[in-house]
Amino acid sequence: MSVHVFGIRHHGPGSARSMLQGLRALAPDIVLIEGPPDGDALIPFVANEGLKPPVALLVYNPKDLQEAAYYPFASFSPEWQAMAFALQKNLPVRFMDLPRRLAFTLNRLEKDNPQLRILPPTPEQDESELPVEVKARVSRDPFGYLAQLAGYADSERWWEVMFEAQQNPEAIFPTIVEMIDALRQSKGSEDEAREQQREAHMRQVIRQAQKEGFEKIAVVCGAWHSPALQYLDRYKASHDKAILRGIKKTSTKATWVPWTYQQLSTQSGYAAGVLSPAWYQLLFHRPKDVLIRWMTKVARLFRKEDLDSSSAHVIEAVRLAETLASLRGLRVAGIEEMNEAAMTIFCQGYQEQLQIIEQKLVVGDVMGKVPPEVPVIPLQQDLDRQIKSARLTKYRKTSESLWLKANASNPRGGIYLREEADRF
C-alpha cells in the first residue's frame, strides 16, 4: 500500500495542473482531499453541469445558523480538479479534514477556555537546533523566511516562481514535502491545537483507506500539511485517537452556494485567498496563449470604457511583458509583468485606468451557479417562499448585484450566513 501526497497551494492553477499530471501518472484507486467530511454527499454534484464555479461548500449548524463555514472552490482550485478527476474515473473520493460537526464544538469550547488552543507536542516531533532569532522568524512567517533567503520580498511571488510555474510533478511534490518538513522542524513544537486535531483526523482517514485495502492512495492537501500526512509512521494511531477522543458532535448540514471572485480574492479578507482569480482562471485554462488573450481582454475592456486601444497596443504590451519576464529570469510573465506592461502601454501611466483592469481582469466580476436540485438552506427557502407569495420573479443579474453590494460593505461575511474565518 502506498500513499502519495500532493501538497498544493489552495486555488493555485500551477498546483492544479501539476497535480492532475501526477494523478494521471499514478492512476490511484482512491482520492482523499482536504475538506470537510460533512460534505461528502455533495461531491457528486461536481460532475453536474449546472454547478459552475466559483462556488462554495457551506457547512452549517441547522440549530444555530451563526455556526457556519464556507469552503470556496474555483475551476482552477486543485481540490476542485481532484474531485472532477476522481468522478470522471469513477474512483472513490472523500474529504478528510476535521469534520465541522467536531470543529463547531471545539470552537465553543475554545471560546470559553482559550487554554485549549494549545496542545503539547507530539511524542515523535523533533526539536530544532536553529538559533532562537531564526526560529522566531520561521515560526512567524515560514514561507516569508524562505522567500527572503531566495531573494524575494514577497512569499507569494516566490511560490509562483518556484512551484506554480514548474511542470514536473515527479520532482515538485516530493520537494515540497521535504521543504515543508524542514520548515516544520525549524518552527518548533508548540502547534495550534486545531492544526494537530485536523492533521490527526486526516491521518485517521488515510489509515482507514489502508484498512479497506486501497493500494494507491492519492492525498490532496495544503502544502503545509504534506509531511504530516506523508510520514504516517512518525505518528502513532493511538496518539491521533487520543487528540480527538471525547469531542461531542454537533449536528450539521451542507450545501453548495454561489460564490464570487471578489470573495475568493485576498481583498475580501479570505485567509486562503489569491490576488488575481480572473488571471488564474485564464492561466489554468489557456496557458499557451495566456498573454495574448489577457492583453486582448484589456483592449476590449478599454474600448468598452471609451478609452484608446488597438491591436498595436496588444502587440506592444505582450512584447513588454515577455521582456520583463525575461529580464527577471521567469519562464512566463506573471500578473505583475502584465500589470506593468498594461500600465505603460494602455494606461500611459494613469493609475485610475489600471484600477479598471485590476477590478475586471485581475480579480474579475464573476459569480458561480448552483443547480436547483442542490439542497437549499433555510434563509433561501424563506426567500423563495416570499418571492412566490408576492408573485415576483428572480433575476440573476439583480441577485448578483445585491451579492456584490452586500459583500462590498461586509467583506468578512456572506449573503447567506456569517462566514467563519477558515484556513482552508
What does this structure look like?
- The protein has 424 residues and is of the alpha/beta class.
- It has two domains: 2-268, no CATH class; 277-364, no CATH class.
- The chain has 18 helices and seven strands.
- The protein has a four-stranded parallel beta sheet with strand order 1-6-2-5, with helices on both faces.
- It is globular.
Quaternary state of the chains: single chain
Major sheet size, sense and barrel closure: 4 strands, parallel
Q: How many individual domains?
A: 2
Question: Mean of residue pLDDT?
Answer: 83
- Total of helices: 18
Based on secondary structure, the structural category is: alpha/beta
Unreliable sequence segments: 398-424
Helices, strands, pairings?
Layout: E1 2-8, H1 13-26, E2 30-33, E3 55-61, E4 64-73, H2 78-88, E5 93-95, H3 100-112, H4 132-140, H5 142-149, H6 155-164, H7 169-187, H8 193-211, E6 216-222, H9 226-230, H10 237-244, E7 253-258, H11 261-264, H12 277-285, H13 290-304, H14 311-327, H15 335-345, H16 351-364, H17 378-389, H18 396-409
Brief sketch in words of this structure:
The protein folds into two domains: 2-268, no CATH class; 277-364, no CATH class. Helix content is 50%, strand content 10%.
Which short descriptors sum up this protein?
424 residues, alpha/beta, 2 domains, 10% strand
